[in-house]
Specification:
Structural class: mainly alpha
Number of helices: 19
Strand order of the largest sheet: 1-2
Helix content: 55-70%
Largest sheet: 2 strands, antiparallel
Radius of gyration: 22 Å
Shape: globular
Mean pLDDT: 86
């Protein structure tokens, strides 16, 4: 028997995991996911595991907001469709919690996803050089900067940033396994397998959030790091390589779209970054204020409310078929008002301390990342964001619990798949 024995054996649980990661939006339009279509199955699963009470309590809060929004006035079709989508998302999140809480083979699933994802990336690379009709199977093309199109890796998802967000738990899991076991050389193959797809997706929000997370994790654990020579050597090499790469890009590739985008971001004139950050909050505040700053405008209503706001105050956004607020926190403000924000952050802060997130490297790194990312992207029914939050608050990988850095920090951690 080899180390690959049983790698591709699938159970129903693993099939659900693969569906979520690889095929959740394949062939579907309008933001619909297969996890939405499987809502009846997840609902039965929730009942069988006796979590119906949790579902009813959560939906009761949604119902209270619904009655308030109906009193202010809504477009009924959009309101009903969006509430149905919200309930579907709630059902999926509770089902995913049960999955993570009770499924014992998550490490095998992570290994399968690592290998299959990399194989798909290898298959996708030649498609980059083909006609768009073939290229679009694996790659996402949109306006990048200076209104020029740019093509990024998305595999079977509907957007590159969505795909890169899917990668985050996988990347952090293997980065920490390699780093904590201090087996950088042995783990170089895995490093390539998890880093290459992230770079090809070229999501500035996800990559930037990861760099900030790495910096904050090093700062928070500096006393532990300075006790060991190898981690400091690794960090020094990575830092010098990043600086050298930046200088090479600025000097020799200053006219490329990627460098121009980076310069625009740092100079504060990148329209995409501005639209995902402070402009999103400005629009959200106006949208909520059009109905109620305390309770927001309601689910499904922003697409009717914000076009007038954008046309009058943010004309540089241009004309779009549908406008949305590309920021989960700002969208929460627009939809549920200040009270919704209080509930959102109240739950996050409570669960952070209740579940002792700070005592596990993996969970803490994910918390830092997704807490930052929610201010720069995502949306309130994004199942990928909620899965990351679940991984933060459910201790699925206790091998990352804080203890002295040594080769035994991650028991049985093989750095190669």
């Amino acid at each position: 028997m080899t180390k690959y024995s049983g790698l591709f054996r699938l159970s129903i649980q693993k099939m659900v995991g693969h569906l979520y990661f690889f095929f959740n939006s394949l062939g579907l339009k309008g933001g619909l996911l297969y996890t939405n279509l499987l809502t009846p199955f997840f609902f039965v699963w929730i009942i069988n595991h006796r979590y119906l009470g949790v579902l009813l309590k959560t939906c009761s809060v949604l119902a209270i907001y619904g009655f308030i929004h109906l009193a202010y006035g809504v477009d009924h079709k959009s309101f009903l469709v969006s509430n149905a989508l919200a309930i579907s998302t709630i059902i999926f999140v509770i089902a995913a919690y049960i999955y993570l809480k009770h499924y014992s083979s998550l490490r095998d699933l992570m290994q399968q996803i690592l290998v299959l994802n990399f194989l798909l990336v290898i298959v996708a690379i030649p498609f980059y050089f083909l006609d768009y009709s073939w290229q679009k199977w694996f790659w996402y093309t949109n306006l990048f900067t200076t209104q020029k199109t740019f093509t990024r890796l998305a595999l079977f998802t509907f957007e590159a940033s969505y795909y890169s967000l899917l990668l985050i738990p996988l990347c952090y899991y293997y980065y920490l396994r390699i780093f904590l076991s201090m087996q950088l050389i042995k783990g170089r193959t895995v490093l390539v397998m998890i880093t290459l797809p992230l770079l090809l997706s070229l999501s500035f929000g996800v990559i930037g959030g990861t760099l900030i997370t790495a910096f904050l994790m090093c700062w928070l654990h500096f006393k532990q790091l300075i006790r060991y020579r190898l981690p400091l050597q690794i960090l020094s090499v990575v830092l010098m390589a990043a600086i050298l790469t930046g200088l090479i890009l600025l000097i020799f590739f200053s006219d490329t779209l990627v460098v121009k985008r980076m310069l625009n971001v740092f100079s504060g004139i990148d329209t995409s970054t501005n639209g995902r950050t402070f402009e999103a909050f400005q629009i959200a505040w106006k949208a909520a204020g059009s109905k109620s700053v305390w309770f927001g405008g309601g689910l499904g209503q922003t697409k009717w409310i914000i076009p007038e706001i954008i046309h009058s105050d943010f004309p540089h956004w241009g004309k779009m078929a549908v406008y949305r607020i590309p920021n989960a926190v700002a969208e929460t403000l627009a939809v549920f008002g200040i009270s919704g924000l209080m509930i959102r952050f109240g739950i996050l802060i409570y669960l952070f301390f209740k579940t002792n997130v700070q005592n596990n490297y993996f969970r803490l790194a994910l918390f830092i990342f997704i807490f930052i990312y929610q201010f720069t992207g995502s949306y309130i029914t994004n199942v990928v964001e909620y899965v990351i939050w679940l991984l933060v608050f459910v201790n699925c990988f206790p091998e990352f619990d804080k203890k002295p850095l040594s080769s035994s920090t991650v028991p049985h951690a093989k750095t190669a798949p």
